[in-house]
Every structure is written in structure tokens, then in C-alpha cells.
Amino acid sequence: MVNGGVIDALKADLRAEAARLGFAACGVAPAEEDPWVAARLDAWLAEGMHGEMAWMESRAHHRRSPQALWPEARSVIALAMSYAPAADPLALAGHPDRARVSVYAQGGDYHDTVKKGLKALARWLVEAARKRGLGERQVKVFVDTAPVPEKPLAMAAGLGWQGKHTNLVSRTHGSWLFLGAIYSDLDFAVDAAGEDSCGSCRACQDACPTAAFTGPYRLDARRCVSYLTIEHKGPIPHEFRKGLGNRIYGCDDCLAVCPWNKFANEAQAIRAFLPRAELAAPCLADLLALDDAGFRRLFSGSPIKRIGRDRFVRNCLYAAGNSGDGRLAPQVAALMRDPDPAVAEAAEWALGELSGGQ
Description:
single chain, four-stranded antiparallel sheet
């Protein structure tokens, strides 16, 4: 059997091993630059839509293609794990005394789970290639912490397509996918790219509470609730505070309304992604009481921990101001003396809202 046949057989076994490790989808994309993807990134950055995410711009040259980051790359294995929820992500919209946490952050930190699977698959691949006479191969694994264009690569590998909300959509798994990539120096045959199936639907555009979409497939991060509650430092601009509602970490609205989600199955196979009971419908009053130590205890092993207590309580104060619940006023008033300026300012705003603007 020639090398081409060996590599094709290895690719088939790779898919099977990926499925065994808990990946819901696996495909292969080219490692070369896609001029359309690179131009789209450049235009987005030129318009400043990345906001304070300076790392997007400082390492844009690496995001243009896998080979720009690692010249030895010959193919990219794109992978996805499903975190499709059992409960309706929008169910808490009518319960202002409760806080809404994005589905992806209600369980354990996905970085840990996905990276563990990627490393296991990479080890398997290196060993399998060696046993099949393909020599000592090199691989690199990435999950959301390096300048890697995960969504375009996943689309190029046939895992789905980038929807009008700019996230990946799968015919099988809907919008609920964590993405990862393995860069390889093996010349795997690439898979057919995913085809856009959004059609005339604009459900995600219409659902955005802060009008963050400047058009289909165009997201201004500076207006996005996920960006504002996670990445944005300091006070959130007044024009977006009412739009936050009771969302305190991330936002699922554009994902949750996607019609393709009706085909997604609850991700029971990955236990680490199942929601913690204390995060499924947390009480705002309890969250407002968190000091730094309490915050660290509650969010140990959670992706929420990365934003720190101050930014988190800032978000909770905006939710309190939007709640209309006067019982929160004493807690809110006490936080006006918080040493963090953004927390104190958010408390002042929230108390004004709870007092009817007086």
C-alpha cells in the first residue's frame, strides 16, 4: 500500500478515535491561507469591531492561516464537542430576580475538557502514524487560547458553516459546539467545506438585545453582550445597560433562536458540560454578596473565574438595576462604597434605576 492509501486509512481511523474520545464532529481543512477569510478578518479589525481585544489585532498575521502560525502545517484536523443544553436557554428572561449565565459557562471549563480530548487524539495520531511507517510526525493542538481561526477552519473542514450570527452552525448539532484544532504535518486529504444554509432567516439578527449585528455575518463586538460582560473593562456604556437585562455572563440569544437547533441533542455524553445546579438559575441577591474569596470558591474550575470578582459583581449590579426588585436596594447601596470604581459606579446606576430614577 502506498503512502496515500496509508494516510487515507489513518484518516478513517482518526475519525473513529475522535468519536470515541467524545468529539461530535471531525473533519480536515487545508493549512494554506484562504484569501477571503484573511480579507474578512482585516476588514473587521480595520473597523475596530474587536473593541478592547488587542490580541486580535496584535497577532492578526497568525490568524490569517495555520501556516502563518506554524509553517510546517500541511493539514488541519478540525474538531467539535457538543454542549447542547437540555433546558431552554431563554427560560430565565422572564425572571429578573435570577441571573442568566451563558450555557457554555454553566458547567466546567470547556478549555480543560476539549484540550484533554485534543491531546489524547494527537498522541494517538503520532503513535498510529509511526506504527504505519509514516515516521515521527509533529502536531500542535489549540482550543480558543491561540491565534487560530477556529470557525473558518471548522467550516472549511465540513463541520458546518458560519451562520449570520458568525458562529458555527451544524445540521446535526445546531449552534452548540466547542471547537478545537490539531495542526499536523501530514498531508491528509481535505474534506468538502460546509455550505451556508441560513437562507433568508434572520432570527439571530432580530434576537440580539443590543443590536450588535451591523448586517448578516457582521458582528460588532463592542455592542455584543458577551463581549461587554466578559471582555470589556470598566463601566459598560449606558446605552447598553438596559439591553443586558439579567444577563451577567455572556449571552445565548442569537444561538438559542437558530432553527437548526431543533436537530441538536442534549450533550449528556460529556458530563463536564452539564450545568452546575448553582449556576442554572442563580439568585441575584446571592451573587451580589460575593467577596473575592467567595467568588473564587464558587467559580473554581469555571470559565467565569477568569473575569474576576469585580467585573462579575459589576455585571450583577446592572442586572439588579434592570430587575425592578426594590428588595435588592440595600445590597446595591452598600456596594456604592466598593473599592473598585466600576463596581461603585454600577451600584450608583442600579440604585437610581431601582429608585425610579430619583
